[in-house]
């Protein structure tokens, strides 16, 4: 599907029925697959022949949907995970082990920050967090000889900072490590990191991709553009035999899909964070309209942001699509079709003001969610980011009064009317 437009890929990539097969992607709700002989099965286990044998490793429904996301991002292979958290974890575990180090943007989702700074630290992998708006020299100085990856969010949740993709790509290339981008907020409809030189893209598909709040999920896309063989000292596990998998050498056996194959063969086999095929089916329904929804999210968000910008009770507002925003020019350059539907802002009264205002909303629901067809709102400092210290909050771009407002695809007029009445009460 590589020559088709994004809209066509959203609708048709992935599952392609053969003659007489169902037009709609089937849900292969089966953990296992039958073969006529043990010998055939043995070849599958050796990865000598392609084929399904156990759903923890691969499942047709999951694979069709991963292929669609792969096509949208322009990668060489992709795999679904049970959550965005699992995608973040695997994307790092695939290149780093105890004793290694990762450079990471400080402006990331609170759950990712905790995963990296607490849980993965306990596993012996150390992270250095850098301000994504730092200069090239500061970014450069964060690297160490044992650094194995550079990680960042294309548009950060919830601080809405747009990454300087060129600076991050250059730093990763200079230090011979892959650049891993969490592209959840813009989705490939608005930004495709691989086209700019990133090497791996991950998603929380729970957000816009599903879009209807039905299924937690994640995805990892291998860009196929990192030469593991030219860094054999840093990444020996790609170019030397994997004794845990019959001595397979990933770069030899799988070429430019070595990163993907290693996740599948090692991490899925051993840790098993797969989605249910039924969830993959629901995700696919979301993906079929992703291009339409993103357009509506972005235009609604701009209308709402313009309204909030002019409201006397709104102290500050951030939305990268809003002219005058700190990231507006970068958004125009790298995301000319739009950014995302999320806005952050503060109202009179600080933290208490934020909570009181949110309680007054009717159409917009207070939920632990973002990037949904329905408008929703959250106070990160007391929820998703509550485990962060004040200093960590500041580094992540989250002020105590920050309201994260995720504009849905309802009528912008109705969303604004809801904001109007809620603001009038504070
Ligand atoms: N990455 C980003 C940018 C997110 O916003 C989230 C969740 O909000 C995650 C990763 C984690 O995804 P999940 O909740 O699907 O595990």
Mind sketching the topology for me?
Layout: H1 6-12, H2 38-45, H3 60-73, E1 77-81, H4 84-93, E2 101-105, H5 110-122, E3 126-130, H6 136-141, E4 147-153, H7 165-175, E5 179-182, H8 187-190, E6 200-204, E7 218-222, H9 236-239, H10 250-254, H11 258-270, H12 277-288, H13 290-309, E8 314-318, H14 328-334, E9 342-347, H15 350-359, E10 365-366, E11 376-378, H16 390-395, E12 403-406, H17 412-424
Parallel strand pairs: 2-3, 2-4, 4-5, 5-6, 10-11
Antiparallel strand pairs: 1-7, 6-7, 8-9, 9-12, 11-12
Bound molecules: pyridoxal-5'-phosphate.
Question: Any overview of this molecule?
Answer:
The protein folds into 2 domains: 6-285, Type I PLP-dependent aspartate aminotransferase-like (Major domain) (Aspartate Aminotransferase, domain 2), CATH 3.40.640; 291-424, Aspartate Aminotransferase, domain 1. The protein is 38% helix and 13% strand. The protein has 17 helices and 12 strands. Strand 5, helix 8 and strand 6 form a beta-alpha-beta unit. Helix 1 (6-12) runs antiparallel to helix 3, helix 3 (60-73) runs parallel beside helix 12 and helix 13 runs parallel beside helix 17 (412-424). Pyridoxal-5'-phosphate (PLP) binds next to helix 4 and helix 5.
Q: Main β-sheet, in a few words? A: 7 strands, mixed
For the record, the CATH architecture of the largest domain stands as 3-Layer(aba) Sandwich
Ligand set: pyridoxal-5'-phosphate
Indicate the percent of residues in helices. Answer: 25-40%
Strands side by side in the biggest sheet: 1-7-6-5-4-2-3
Strand content: 5-15%
The CATH topology annotation of the largest domain reads as Aspartate Aminotransferase, domain 2
- The level 1 CATH classification of the largest domain is Alpha Beta
The helix/strand order is HHHEHEHEHEHEHEEHHHHHEHEHEEHEH
Helical/strand content category: alpha/beta
Stretches where pLDDT is under 50 for at least 5 consecutive residues are none
Rg, alpha carbons: 22 Å
Extended strand count: 12
**Roughly how many Å apart are the termini?**
52 Å
Overall residue-averaged pLDDT value: 96
